[in-house]
Inverse folding.
């Protein structure tokens, strides 16, 4: 069978289902697939077999052992290699007529700007984090490229096609913010297992093995938020004491550093907290742990019977784990054995006794210390790094014991500390198929057929669909007016760019880059600076906001000049035509009360006008002139409120006006 016959046979079913016209279009379609994980592997296989001709696959991650149970394009030999590269090599064999271009990089890098996104016919998202999803959504809205968004969580999943001006975008509906905890709760008064896990992962591990030498940044922020001042002061002293422990972990010494860390963290620090008696009036005081007593199997946790006081009869907490043993020593058992009560003895799923937890703490601390001594500068948490996971597991469970909190298995802590969302291969496969169906509707421009599709945990109705919602008129992403400017950031000033975009329609505007304000009508210091000096360049967005709120927001996407642009040519190329934002409807507001006509009494003290907020400017003749201290719009708003701004102290005040500062 010759090559043409093979190609015809390979695409026969697709042509029969999709039609020859769409099949021909697919072979020329340029698709960007972002993510090569659980959904990404299934989706890559689908679009390769469907016949999408030109596929760019981008992912910044490498293959881990935990990926192999569902990401079938990878094998054990591929561990630590680029997901994008290996997935492209494996899937390329499924259809030799498809061109797959893998990229091992971060989608948020400057090189992937609006010009780059505009080169694709459609974008398919297979991401697992909110920040990257929002970035891709904004780039697609700016470039006008259709996007299919997706996600799974266990047996649940969703597919959402997005198209500017026709459907809502990813940010039209607010997303829940990540859960955060007060610093004092994490550092002093934990009450849940997650508090102890966050403490071990985000505080103790960086303090001992990471970059955080004093840990004062979060304390400064907590102080600003008004948290307990006494607790903050005690925590500052505690943080400074860690320096000696950090040095011991890095020194070549015969000292038992694990025991030193234990006594500092689980004994001395807890005793310091107990000295603040007011803290324990309404909660049970923690118990300092005893290193030697736990090792010898004679340590028991005693909690006051009345949790609202630190006095009274004590209750012994045995913390009996699933393997049937208490706080003392646990008989040795192989990883494949089962406990006396039938619970699996697998390492990750086996609940540890207090003694076993201490042994795991000693072992993991010594392993991490040895890595520091061999040259590692800093060690950060990675759910697939056994040393850091063991340390976080042991430290979190020791802290839980001291605070009478239920302890967790290594597997449970891995899920919580690694923010692991349960992934099921079947759900990924279903979602990937649905993504392709919605992508075909977008390529056909069958917009009436677009649907939001949900995979539900309902046997009688596993799939549900809903029609697409129109854009949210208040969305701060898809309702903006986007435009593109090609420029050399080293030669273009902020003023030149803004004036060029506004054209003849001069008005008072504020300019932002992300959350940074670069200029406003009352602060123009940056207008004469180049974009490069403001750290604004390729891949960035400049947001131009009308001060009067009469016109919509303009968002300028920056790209580099084309390669064939003459060196002595203009430093920037403006879009043609210039962006034309919509006129906004004025919201009816309550008119301000009429200004008082009351004159100042003769002996009233008149206040002199204070110093100007802007510095004086010098004209071309060397004459210094006073800068207007407010924009015309701000001046007019003040005058409507019955207030008058004087340009200098020599200005005359007309009748019926009260002079103010």
């Amino acid at each position: 069978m010759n090559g043409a016959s093979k190609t015809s046979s390979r695409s026969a079913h697709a042509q029969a289902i999709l039609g020859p016209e769409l099949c021909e279009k697919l072979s020329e379609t340029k698709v960007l697939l972002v993510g090569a994980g659980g959904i990404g592997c299934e989706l890559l296989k689908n679009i390769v077999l469907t016949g999408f001709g030109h596929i760019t696959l981008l992912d910044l991650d490498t293959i881990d052992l935990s990926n192999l149970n569902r990401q079938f394009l990878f094998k054990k030999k591929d561990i630590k290699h680029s997901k994008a590269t290996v997935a492209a090599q494996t899937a390329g064999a499924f259809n030799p007529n498809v061109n797959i271009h893998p990229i091992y990089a971060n989608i948020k890098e400057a090189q992937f700007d609006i010009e780059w996104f505009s080169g694709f016919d459609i974008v398919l998202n297979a991401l697992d984090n909110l920040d990257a999803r929002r970035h891709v959504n904004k780039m697609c809205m700016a470039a006008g490229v259709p996007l299919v968004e997706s996600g799974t969580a266990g047996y649940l999943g969703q597919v959402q096609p997005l198209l500017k001006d026709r459907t809502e975008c990813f940010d039209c509906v607010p997303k829940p913010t990540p859960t955060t905890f007060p610093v004092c709760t994490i550092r002093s008064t934990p009450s849940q297992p997650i508090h102890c896990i966050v403490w071990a992962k985000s505080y103790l591990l960086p303090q001992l093995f990471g970059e955080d030498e004093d840990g004062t940044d979060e304390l400064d922020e907590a102080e600003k938020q008004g948290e307990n001042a006494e607790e903050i002061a005690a925590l500052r002293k505690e943080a400074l004491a860690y320096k000696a422990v950090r040095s011991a972990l890095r020194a070549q010494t015969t000292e038992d550093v694990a025991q030193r860390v234990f006594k500092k963290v689980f004994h001395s620090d807890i005793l310091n907290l107990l000295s603040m008696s007011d803290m324990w009036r309404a909660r049970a005081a923690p118990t300092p742990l005893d290193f030697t007593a736990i090792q010898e199997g004679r340590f028991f946790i005693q909690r006051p019977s009345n949790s609202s006081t630190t006095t009274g009869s004590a209750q012994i907490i045995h913390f009996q784990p699933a393997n049937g043993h208490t706080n003392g020593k646990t008989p040795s058992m192989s990883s494949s054995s089962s406990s006396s009560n039938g619970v699996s003895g697998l390492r990750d799923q086996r609940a540890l006794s207090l003694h076993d937890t201490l042994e795991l703490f000693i072992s993991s601390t010594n392993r991490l210390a040895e890595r520091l001594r061999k040259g590692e500068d800093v060690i950060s948490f990675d759910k697939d790094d056994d040393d850091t996971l063991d340390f976080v597991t042991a430290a979190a469970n020791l802290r839980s014991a001291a605070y009478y909190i239920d302890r967790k298995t290594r597997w449970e802590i891995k899920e919580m500390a690694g923010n692991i969302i349960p992934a099921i291969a079947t759900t990924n496969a279903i979602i990937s198929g649905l993504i392709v169906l919605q992508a075909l509707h977008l390529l056909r421009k069958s917009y009436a057929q677009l649907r939001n599709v949900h995979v539900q945990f309902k046997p009688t109705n596993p799939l549900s669909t809903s029609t697409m919602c129109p854009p949210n008129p208040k969305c701060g992403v898809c309702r903006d007016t986007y435009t593109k400017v090609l420029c050399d950031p080293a030669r273009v000033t902020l003023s030149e760019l803004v004036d060029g975009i506004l054209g003849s329609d001069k008005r008072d505007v504020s300019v932002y880059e992300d959350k940074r304000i670069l200029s406003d009508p009352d602060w123009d210091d940056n207008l004469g600076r180049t974009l490069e000096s403001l750290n604004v360049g390729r891949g960035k967005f400049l947001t131009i906001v009308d001060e009067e709120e009469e016109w919509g927001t303009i968002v300028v996407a920056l790209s580099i000049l084309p390669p064939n642009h003459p060196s002595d040519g203009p430093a920037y190329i403006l879009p043609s035509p210039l962006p034309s934002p919509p006129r906004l409807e004025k919201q009816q507001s309550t008119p301000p009360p009429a200004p008082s006509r009351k004159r100042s009494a003769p002996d009233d003290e008149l206040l002199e006008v204070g110093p100007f907020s802007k510095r004086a400017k010098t004209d071309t003749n060397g004459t210094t002139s006073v800068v207007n201290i407010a924009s015309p719009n701000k001046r007019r708003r003040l005058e409507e409120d019955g207030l008058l701004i004087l340009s200098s102290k020599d200005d005359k005040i007309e009748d019926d006006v009260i002079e103010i500062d």
